[in-house]
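Quick review question:
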């Protein structure tokens, strides 16, 4: 698929020397199925989109993304590739150690994949001796962004490849969205055994949500709201 997506920062070493940022922004995506209308890189694209906007707005050090993560609940679908939680922990700790050696002591993890539960534990542990890692967007951030966008469903109902994910790509990279999104809805509001049985137990297409409700406008409104929400995360992160 030909696309104009640019996921990597093009800053030079002198650029970052001049910036002198003490806060780095690390997008964490995934490589997993997103139904038939969105690509395997969807979570990485969304994480990079959010990370780029907040890094530009708040003048922070933007890092390239981690493009594979904990997508084990999607592995029954072709194309999905995961790494273990322990590998993800090790990667982020190595990145943090390298950043500290260069004087960058604070890290923002911009998570694009809801299954990366371990990122919460990474942040918890990292902050025992004072604020050093924040995880964004949180549940409340996504809730406000959905409200600002006028989303039809809540985050639980619209879990995967649905209204908001499709809207964000329609807004930023419409060439990545297949036309079939208008007919790809699949509601599975009750998913009591997701961690045991995986996504296929609740969706043969891989979609859980309502992509037909997506729009360019909703994507833009949600993204703008996330940029505003991040201000409080940054304030707390820089407290000490």
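Suggested answer, residue by residue:
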């Amino acid at each position: 698929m030909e696309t104009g997506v640019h996921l990597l920062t093009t800053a030079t070493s002198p650029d970052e020397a001049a910036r002198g940022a003490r806060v780095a922004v690390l997008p964490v995506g995934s490589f997993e199925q997103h139904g038939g209308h969105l690509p395997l890189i969807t979570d990485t694209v969304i994480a990079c989109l959010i990370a780029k906007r907040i890094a530009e707005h708040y003048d922070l050090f933007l890092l390239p993304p981690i493009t594979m993560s904990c997508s084990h609940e999607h592995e029954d679908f072709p194309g999905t590739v995961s790494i273990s939680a322990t590998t993800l922990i090790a990667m982020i700790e190595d990145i943090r150690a390298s950043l500290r050696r260069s004087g960058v002591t604070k890290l923002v993890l911009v998570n694009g994949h809801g299954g990366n539960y371990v990122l919460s534990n990474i942040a918890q542990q990292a902050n025992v001796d004072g604020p050093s890692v924040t995880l964004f967007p949180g549940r409340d951030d996504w809730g406000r962004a959905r409200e600002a966008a006028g989303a039809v469903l809540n985050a639980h109902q619209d879990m995967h490849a649905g209204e908001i994910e499709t809207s964000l790509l329609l807004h930023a990279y419409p060439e990545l969205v297949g036309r079939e999104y208008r007919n790809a809805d699949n509601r599975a509001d009750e998913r009591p055994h997701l961690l045991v049985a995986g996504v296929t137990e609740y969706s043969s297409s891989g979609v859980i949500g309502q992509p037909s409700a997506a729009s360019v406008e909703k994507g833009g409104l949600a993204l703008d709201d996330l940029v505003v929400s991040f201000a409080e995360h940054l304030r707390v992160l820089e407290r000490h």
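Why it works: The mean pLDDT is 97. The chain has eight helices and four strands.
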